[in-house]
């Protein structure tokens, strides 16, 4: 099977993945030894690090580093089966120290990140530095209905101050606005009907919140409503998903998503600074298919593939900062090279990236960004790892389809062996009973049980050495 000659529609139909499939993943919080999806490579070793590029927040005058540290993917210590998970605090401290030393001053966390441990780890690391050396962003991550009450929401808000060891928060976000099936109804239940948004606006007046904004996922009606009522809410910033694939192809990747071009343009009209999440689309724009890798390397051989995506996201003048979840020092150093200083893309390079995006959407990967909001699964299934392995095999051409293909046996072995190595048998897709508990928490609106069942059926078919025909 030649990877660059996959017929996308027939492949999607046979795999039962539908038009919403897309997105390769990058490892999130996890054991420190598992370096999957590394961004950097040896080719950037000759590049020199200069001074960080900064953007000024016109609301507060904050001079913010264009590279923001996303604290969703802190490294975890290696533990034995059954032992409690623990963030590698020494390594977190080392990463934070290096970032601050090289000009990074924006750190973005949440009560939901790293299985609830990110704020504490981030607070410990940052408390070792003067308060005026960093800006801290966190979120009111009251996703679950049991946290929608005023008491539970405010408890989460006050706990963030304790865990982060601060007496004011620089940037507070309403987390995942528009993520549910009925985005407007959910927004009202989470923030309006219980008086929480009014409370947060008063906290901003009191100075305990310096900037109030929201992160947007999914339902564009909510996004439009919140911007149309800017006079009422006075949003100081908004966090959106922006990358060169989502600029024009977001709805093709997932029908509930909104093209980044629209989101950014609407913010620019109102002079609202944009904070960028998913500049790598969960890793898809660093772990690219071989022919895309060759295309990018031919154009810019000395820089990493990821640097294209970071330079693109930083190219927009109303972008305040671009977040990256940097688990390893290699991630951090490579991204520092992209932004110290930022070398803007010219028109020809932007066109080149849009043409690259047109090629990439032909590959039917699943739109998982490895955020782990779907976890934990009550039946122990490692949902992100399963989708990660599947997407990796699609990108590498190791999806065996026709037993008559010359590389069928090689692809079959690569998929099955890699699956067992990536996901313990007791945590594989075969154990999904379709309870659906995971699905409402997915910001990409993936039909997770359907995808797991399709992958499990696929695994069983190729185990029997049958031609892959998923319905």
What do these coordinates show?
The protein is an alpha/beta fold. Helix content is 40%, strand content 12%. The chain is built from 17 helices and 12 strands. The chain has helices at residues 8-15, 89-101, 118-126, 150-164, 183-192, 196-206, 220-228, 230-233, 246-253, 260-269, 290-299, 305-314, 329-339, 347-360, 383-396, 408-422, 448-463; strands at residues 30-31, 54-56, 63-65, 67-70, 75-76, 106-108, 135-140, 169-177, 209-216, 237-241, 274-277, 319-325. The strands form 3 sheets. An 8-stranded parallel barrel has the order 4-6-7-8-9-10-11-12, surrounded by 7 helices. The protein has a two-stranded parallel ribbon with strand order 1-5. α2 crosses α3 (118-126) and α3 (118-126) packs parallel to α4. The longest helix has 16 residues, at 448-463. The radius of gyration is 22 Å and the shape is globular.
Lay out the secondary structure.
Blueprint: H1 8-15, E1 30-31, E2 54-56, E3 63-65, E4 67-70, E5 75-76, H2 89-101, E6 106-108, H3 118-126, E7 135-140, H4 150-164, E8 169-177, H5 183-192, H6 196-206, E9 209-216, H7 220-228, H8 230-233, E10 237-241, H9 246-253, H10 260-269, E11 274-277, H11 290-299, H12 305-314, E12 319-325, H13 329-339, H14 347-360, H15 383-396, H16 408-422, H17 448-463
Parallel strand pairs: 1-5, 4-6, 4-12, 6-7, 7-8, 8-9, 9-10, 10-11, 11-12
Antiparallel strand pairs: 2-3
Helix pairs in contact: 2-3, 3-4, 12-13, 15-16, 15-17
């Amino acid at each position: 099977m030649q990877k660059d000659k996959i017929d996308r529609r027939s492949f999607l139909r046979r795999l039962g993945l539908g038009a919403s499939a897309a997105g390769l993943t990058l490892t999130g919080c996890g054991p420190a030894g598992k370096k999957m999806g590394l961004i950097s490579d040896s080719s950037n070793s000759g590049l020199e690090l200069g001074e960080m590029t900064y953007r000024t927040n016109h609301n507060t005058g904050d001079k913010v580093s264009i590279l923001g540290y996303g604290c969703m993917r802190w490294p975890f210590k290696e533990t034995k089966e059954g032992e409690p998970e623990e963030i590698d605090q020494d390594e977190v401290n080392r990463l934070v120290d290096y970032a601050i030393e090289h000009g990074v001053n924006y750190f973005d966390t949440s009560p939901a990140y790293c299985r609830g441990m990110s704020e504490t780890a981030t607070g410990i690391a940052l408390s070792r530095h003067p308060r005026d050396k960093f800006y801290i962003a966190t979120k009111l991550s009251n996703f679950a209905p049991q946290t929608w009450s005023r008491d539970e929401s405010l408890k989460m808000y006050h706990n963030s101050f304790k865990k982060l060891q601060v007496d004011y928060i620089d940037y507070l976000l309403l987390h995942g606005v528009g993520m549910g099936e009925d985005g407007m109804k959910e927004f009202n239940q989470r923030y309006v009907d219980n008086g929480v948004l009014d409370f947060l606006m008063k906290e901003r007046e009191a100075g305990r919140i310096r900037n109030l904004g929201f992160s947007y996922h999914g339902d564009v009606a909510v996004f439009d409503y919140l911007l149309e009522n800017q006079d009422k809410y006075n949003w100081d910033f908004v966090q959106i998903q922006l990358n060169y694939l989502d600029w024009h192809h977001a709805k093709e990747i997932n029908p509930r998503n909104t093209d980044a071009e629209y989101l950014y343009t609407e913010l620019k009209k109102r002079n609202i600074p944009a904070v960028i999440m998913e500049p790598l689309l969960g890793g898809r724009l660093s772990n690219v298919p071989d022919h895309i890798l060759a295309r990018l390397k031919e154009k810019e051989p000395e820089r990493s593939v990821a640097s294209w995506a970071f330079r693109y996201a930083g190219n927009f003048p109303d972008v305040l900062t671009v977040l990256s979840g940097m688990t390893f020092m290699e991630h951090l150093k490579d991204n520092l090279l992209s932004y110290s200083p930022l070398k803007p893309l010219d028109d020809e390079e932007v066109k080149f990236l849009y043409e690259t995006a047109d090629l990439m959407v032909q590959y039917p990967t699943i739109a998982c960004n490895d955020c782990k909001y779907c976890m934990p699964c009550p039946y122990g299934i490692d949902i992100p790892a399963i989708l990660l392995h599947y997407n990796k095999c699609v990108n590498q051409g190791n999806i065996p389809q026709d037993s008559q293909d010359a590389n069928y046996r090689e692809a079959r072995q690569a998929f099955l062996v890699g699956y067992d190595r990536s996901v313990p048998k007791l945590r594989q897709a075969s154990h999904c009973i379709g309870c659906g508990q995971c699905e409402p928490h997915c910001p990409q609106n993936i039909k997770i049980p359907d995808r797991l069942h399709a992958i499990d059926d696929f695994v069983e078919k190729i185990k029997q050495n049958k031609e892959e025909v998923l319905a």
